[in-house]
Amino acid sequence: MGAVCCRTTPVDFDGDVNLFHFVLLRCVGKGAFGKVRMVQHKQTRELYALKYINKGKCVKMKAVANIIQERRLLEEIDHPFVVNLRYAFQDDENCFFVLDLMLGGDLRFHLERLGSLPEEAVRFYVAQISSALAFLHENRIMHRDLKPDNILLDEHGHAHLTDFNIAVHYSERRLLTGVAGSMAYMAPEILTKRGYTYTIDWWSLGVCAYELLFGRRPFRGKTNSDLTHSISKDTLRFPEDADQKCGRAGMQLLRGLLERDSLKRLACKTGEQFEELQRHPWFQPIDWQALENKELQPPFTPDVRTCVCLTSVKLVVLANISFSQSKKANFDASHELEELLLEDNPLKAKVRKANRDVNTLSAEMRQMEEQFTSYDFKNMQRRSYYPQNQQIVSSITATSSMGGLVASRPVTPAASDQRLEGVVAPAHDLYENDGHIRMESTRLSEKSYS
């Protein structure tokens, strides 16, 4: 008598998206609130990155408002150089973001292995990220945590901006004062608490460009106070061998981005902004339209060798992804090992509890239950939660899970759009992660936008 094969419950792809829609592959990253896995959609076979956040940890770290804010901001964003949101959903234990999968690793990974990057490569990446920043600023969003760790390459070598955990809407009529971000990349107006707006992102881009070119940051200090003093007061200096790594136009651009007066900072002058940066001599080789269409050849193409083996148990993806100079994988294998050996409650798809009464939940849990709403990019229109911009921002007409272009068009505002009301980001304790200080004390309530 033959063995009886276990039957699995059919997946309802016409219903709300949930974890049963995906095959769980390797664990590729870990953050303060959760982890990141590579997943494959069972119906479309597309690969994605699944970022999942434990609700209990989120409540414990007083980060509920940040997670909801990130979820809502990501729904507004649709750009070729951003890691775009494709699906969002939750179960009883976790909140899930399904994002474009970037197989080429982050720029921190490559910078640590190469020491510094060639000028033509840095120019290419800075141009792509500046395009993403301009898009965000047009939609009144500032990122606030731009650094090499948050710039990911796709399998073709195009750069994408990620991690919107402390991104926020802004209004030019009222400056923000909360200290937020990674200290080494913070603009001086944040640290001096004079109030700031979107111009801080261009400063951070200047710090990133300097670090990628020369393998070191422009402002440094052994203590937080020393670093604050350096960012606020020290003269911008270049390494002795700077002319061997960067031309005069490049150093001129760095001086423009690292201008302490935000009104004089490159790409921050009223009426010019991104166009001023596009006209800069350093970007003379860049065809901006071709760049945004992803028609330009990236300076490096990650060496992606993917072997997909379908077995009766699971789908296994083995990848060797690297710059041409290296044969090391772009993901830290320790994340997968930790998941296999140390995780008490490994991730798996679970049916939600029936007849859940949200009124029995804590205020924070109820807030996540009600405000971390489901999203499916194939069936839903992207909309803005910005109180002064209540509208649907795009209708998806073409899709790509690998960082390709996504066509969109403006549509009529919907009466059913929800407002971001009463969401407050509480102050987090100062903590350090690989030398990067992150603090958060900004209110994200509707009052911040007026």
From TrEMBL:
Pfam families: Pkinase (PF00069). GO terms for molecular function: ATP binding; G protein-coupled receptor binding; G protein-coupled receptor kinase activity. It comes from the Eukaryota. The keyword Cell wall biogenesis/degradation does not apply. Residues 22-283 form the Protein kinase domain. Residues 284-387 form the AGC-kinase C-terminal domain. GO terms for biological process: G protein-coupled receptor signaling pathway; regulation of signal transduction. ATP binds at K51. InterPro entries: AGC-kinase_C, Kinase-like_dom_sf, Prot_kinase_dom, Protein_kinase_ATP_BS, Ser/Thr_kinase_AS. The keyword Transferase applies. Keywords: ATP-binding, Kinase, Nucleotide-binding, Phosphoprotein, Serine/threonine-protein kinase, Transferase. PANTHER family: G PROTEIN-COUPLED RECEPTOR KINASE/RIBOSOMAL PROTEIN S6 KINASE, SERINE_THREONINE-PROTEIN KINASE 32B ISOFORM X1. Belongs to the protein kinase superfamily. This is Non-specific serine/threonine protein kinase. It comes from Paxillus rubicundulus Ve08.2h10.
